[in-house]
Structures are given as structure tokens and as C-alpha cells.
Specification:
globular; 50% helix; mainly alpha; 5 strands; 428 residues; 3-stranded antiparallel beta sheet; Citrate Synthase, domain 1; single chain; binds carboxymethyl coenzyme *A; two-stranded antiparallel ribbon
Length: 428
């Protein structure tokens, strides 16, 4: 019997089946041959929330949650955070290799020429209420871009796909900055294409009357690092949404709007907003032990802690902590950092958190950086969506180019009522 197989005995029938094991997995469809009768549909695997189901073979991002490892295309996240830029990392995610100097210059130019939005997009945004949540605006406007680029529906044309990838990576920061300006009620600032990716974003966010915005280099660097760290994270909730929606062959703007909607939730990209609200609620270092006890009594979660995949320190959290120090050196110390540091210290020693392998995740410190930049919490998931756009699109392209992928369509175990006759309204 080949070593790379597994033998399954069905105790209901006494039959045995040999199922191949490849890359540490069996194919769920191989279970379908296991039946109790001719008209049996075949054995299904039941996996709510996909705790143990691989939905794709991917060559983009590798995570080893037990060892706290994160790599894009094989490159450790620590090396990329130290040496790369966001646009170079985006190229790596999309194309699979680091660019040569010529390729990087061409890629940077191609992204830069797409940073402007159609003026109608701006008018659309002006129609939102003054207090509209920026993430709701971002999601809507990204979907609306599909109406400006109707040819984007030709998702099976590789050149067309790539054009939309460039457009989205370029335009999402502009939309993001416009949502912020909208919330302040100040004029939207057009892109400054003489600036780099992060510097231009800061200019669109913060420039007021000055003819040329000159961002603080330490802030530009911290933002580039944050963007690199958030660029991809394999098959998380929003990326699965991107792939799942994209598998219907809808245009990438609508698929990405769906992915951004998934990111908005408090258990995903909304977590850094929840972290900051939590830190503000705790308020001071003295109140940290009392808060930890309330979490242990089940009265709420320690936001920014725990991860479905990392059962060790999230490597991104370590790098962000460093970036936080760099930013606070420029913007001034924030007392919330003291609360965060104390929370982390106690939680890392406490049996409740240790036994459940709960460590700080990427969102634990990112909110402190965003707050130091003066951003309201509503902008935090928007800040996450900017770099994640590159990851969503890399994963979307990979999905479309994978001959094994089809429209995503999970099965269910029906547990509802059996057949019954309709009862007229007057007789119920
Ligand atoms: N605080 C307190 N207890 C927790 C926490 C937490 N943050 N996270 C998990 N637990 C407990 C949970 O109560 C459960 O305990 P018990 O076994 O006694 O019932 C155990 O740990 C396992 O939790 P789970 O909910 O089964 O774990 P999960 O893998 O489904 O959840 C998670 C992962 C990230 C949703 C969860 O850890 C969480 O809610 N964390 C807080 C929110 C957060 O920081 N999210 C950001 C995730 S990283 C950014 C991103 O990729 O989106």
C-alpha cells in the first residue's frame, strides 16, 4: 500500500477506502465515495468557520502560527519590514519575485499615474452625510469604481486584470484620504505624484494651506512598515471573501468592496478600533489588573490578543511595537501606550492567556500609531484596507489563474424541518 495514503474504514458498512494524502491533506471530494447505499450522496466533511479546511493551494503568503512565522513569497516579514517599501512588497505579492530596479521604477510609475479619481467619484463621496463612517464610504466607492471601468468585467483577460490591479492599489489610498477629509469637512487633497506612496498618502490626509506638504520622514517610514505588515495574511476572512466573491467572475472592484466589508468587522480589521476604545476605557495603568480580571470572568475580550492561526507572538506585533516607539518619538508620548504595555505584561504572565496561547496580534499596537497620527478610530480599518488591497488582488489573480478553482459553493448539513404542507394564514 503506498505510504502517502490513508485507509478509512467505514464502520457503518465495514468497507475500507484508500485515500491519497498530498501536502498533508486529503481531498474532501475523495470522501464522497464513502456511502452507505447507492442513493447516499456520500460522506461530507463538516467544518464550520473552516477551522481545518484548506480552500486553495497558494504560493503567496506562508504562516507558521505555532512558530510565529510570516513570509511573503518566501521572504521573512522582518526582512521586508526592514529593507523593502510598500510598493516593492506589493510587486512581490502580485508577481511572485522582487523587482529589478527597472521593474520597480516602471511599477512605481504605473501605480503613480493611476492615483487620481474621476471627478464624479468625488461628487459621489460629497453626497455622504458629514458623519458617514469612512469604511462605509470606502466600501461603497470601491464598488462604484466598477461603473467607471466597465471593461473590468473582462476578468479572464490577463492584461485587463493587471490594469485593474494597478488602478486599485493606486486609487484606494486616494479614496481613503478623501473619506477622512470628508469627515473633517475640509477640501479633498489631490494626489501629489512627486511623493512616494506613503508620503503622498500623508499629504492627501493632512495637507492644508501649504503649497507643498513635507511629511516627517519618521512617519513616512513607520507608515511604509505598517503597510508592508498589513499587505497580506493568506486565507483570512476578507481574503476568503475576495476569492469567494471573485470566483463568480465578478469585476475586481465589487469583489474588493466585499473583501473590505469583511475587513470592517470588529473580529477582523475592526479590531484595532476596538483595541483603542478598550485602552481608553481602561484609562490608566492602575486599572489594568481589574480589567484583566473582568476578561477572565468572560465579561469581554482582551482586544488585540489572540489569533485563529498564531498560537505564538504575532511577528507583526513585535515589529509594530518598534514602529510605535519611532512614531511616538516624533509625535510625543501617549499614555495609552503605557496601558497597552502593562496589559501585555500581565496577560503574557497570566495562566488564562498563557494556557489559551493568547498573544498580542498585529492590531494591539497599530491603533496607538494611528492615534498618534491624529486619526479617529473610524479611520483605522480604512488604514488596514489600503495595504491589504495588494494582498487581496494578488490572491484574486492567483485564484483566477488556478485551473482547480471554480465558483465557491460550500455544502451544508440540512437540519431544518422535514416536508410539510403550507398552512393558510387564517388557520395558523
Ligand atoms: N480575550 C480573551 N479571551 C480570548 C480572546 C481574547 N482576545 N481570544 C480568545 N479567547 C479565549 C476564548 O474565550 C476561548 O476560551 P474558552 O476556550 O475558555 O472558551 C479561547 O480563547 C479560544 O477562543 P476562540 O474564540 O475559539 O478563538 P478563535 O480562533 O475563534 O478566535 C479571534 C480568534 C482573533 C477572533 C479571537 O482571539 C478574538 O476575538 N480576539 C480579539 C479580537 C482581535 O484582536 N482580532 C484581531 C485578529 S488579528 C487581525 C486580523 O487578522 O484580522
Amino acid at each position: 500500500m503506498p505510504a502517502d495514503t490513508i485507509t478509512i474504514t467505514d464502520n457503518r458498512t465495514g468497507k475500507t477506502y484508500e485515500v491519497p494524502v498530498s501536502d498533508g491533506a486529503i481531498r474532501a471530494t475523495d470522501l464522497r465515495q464513502i456511502r452507505v447505499s447507492e442513493d447516499d450522496f456520500g460522506l461530507l466533511s463538516y467544518d464550520p468557520a473552516f477551522l481545518n479546511t484548506a480552500s486553495t493551494r497558494s504560493g503567496i503568503t506562508e504562516i507558521d502560527g505555532d512558530r510565529g512565522i510570516l513570509r511573503y513569497r518566501g521572504y521573512p516579514i522582518e526582512q521586508l519590514a526592514e529593507h523593502s517599501t510598500f510598493l516593492e512588497t506589493a510587486y512581490l505579492l502580485v508577481f511572485g519575485e522582487l523587482p529589478t530596479a527597472t521593474e520597480l521604477a516602471a511599477w512605481t510609475d504605473e501605480i503613480t499615474v493611476h492615483t487620481f479619481l474621476h471627478e464624479n467619484t468625488k461628487r459621489l463621496m460629497e453626497g455622504f452625510r458629514y458623519d458617514a463612517h469612512p469604511m462605509g464610504m470606502l466600501i461603497s466607492v470601491v464598488a462604484a469604481l466598477s461603473t467607471f471601468y466597465p471593461e473590468a468585467k473582462n476578468v479572464e483577460d490577463p492584461d485587463n486584470r493587471l490594469l485593474q490591479v494597478k488602478r486599485l492599489i493606486a486609487k484606494v489610498p486616494t479614496i481613503a484620504a478623501f473619506t477622512y477629509r470628508h469627515s473633517l469637512g475640509v477640501p479633498y487633497v489631490y494626489p501629489d505624484n512627486e511623493l512616494g506612496f506613503a508620503a503622498n498618502f500623508l499629504s492627501m490626509m493632512f495637507r492644508m494651506a501649504e503649497p507643498k506638504y513635507r511629511p516627517e520622514p519618521a512617519l513616512v517610514h513607520a507608515l511604509e512598515v505598517l503597510f508592508i505588515l498589513h499587505a497580506d495574511h493568506e486565507q483570512n476572512c476578507s481574503t476568503s471573501a475576495m476569492r469567494s466573491i471573485g470566483s463568480s467572475l465578478v469585476n475586481p472592484y465589487c469583489a474588493l468592496a466585499g473583501a473590505a466589508a469583511a475587513l470592517f468587522g470588529p473580529l477582523h480589521g475592526g479590531a484595532n478600533e476596538a483595541v483603542l476604545r478598550m485602552l481608553e476605557r481602561i484609562g490608566s495603568v492602575e486599572r489594568v489588573p481589574e480589567f484583566i480580571e473582568s476578561v477572565k470572568r468572560g465579561e469581554g475580550r482582551l482586544m488585540g490578543f489572540g489569533h485563529r492561526v498564531y498560537k505564538n507572538y504575532d511577528p507583526r506585533a513585535r515589529i509594530i511595537k518598534q514602529a510605535t516607539d519611532e512614531v511616538l518619538a516624533v509625535t510625543g508620548r501617549n499614555p495609552l501606550l503605557d496601558v497597552a504595555v502593562e496589559l501585555e505584561r500581565i496577560a503574557l504572565e497570566d495562566e488564562y492567556f498563557v494556557s489559551r496561547q493568547l498573544y498580542p496580534n498585529v492590531d494591539f499596537y497599530s491603533g496607538i500609531i494611528y492615534r498618534a497620527l491624529g486619526l479617529p478610530v473610524e479611520m483605522f480599518p480604512v488604514m488596514f484596507a489600503i495595504p491589504r488591497t495588494a494582498g487581496w488582488l494578488a490572491q484574486w489573480r492567483e485564484m483566477l489563474e488556478d485551473p482547480e478553482q471554480k465558483i465557491a459553493r460550500p455544502r451544508q448539513l440540512y437540519v431544518g424541518s422535514g416536508v410539510r404542507d403550507y398552512v393558510p394564514l387564517g388557520s395558523r
